[in-house]
Amino acid sequence: MNDGTEALIDRLSREAAPVRPLAPPHRRVALWLMPGLAVLALAVAWMGPREDLGARLVEARFLIEQGAALLTALAAAFGALVLCTPGMDRRLALLPVLPGAVWAGMLGLGCLADWMRAGAEGLRLAPEPACLGYIALIGIVPALVLVAMLRRGVPLAPRATLFLAGLAAAGLANFGLRLFHDTDAALMVLVWQFGSVLLLSAAAALTGRAVLGRG
Question: What range defines the domain where residue 147 resides?
Answer without folding.
Answer: 32-212
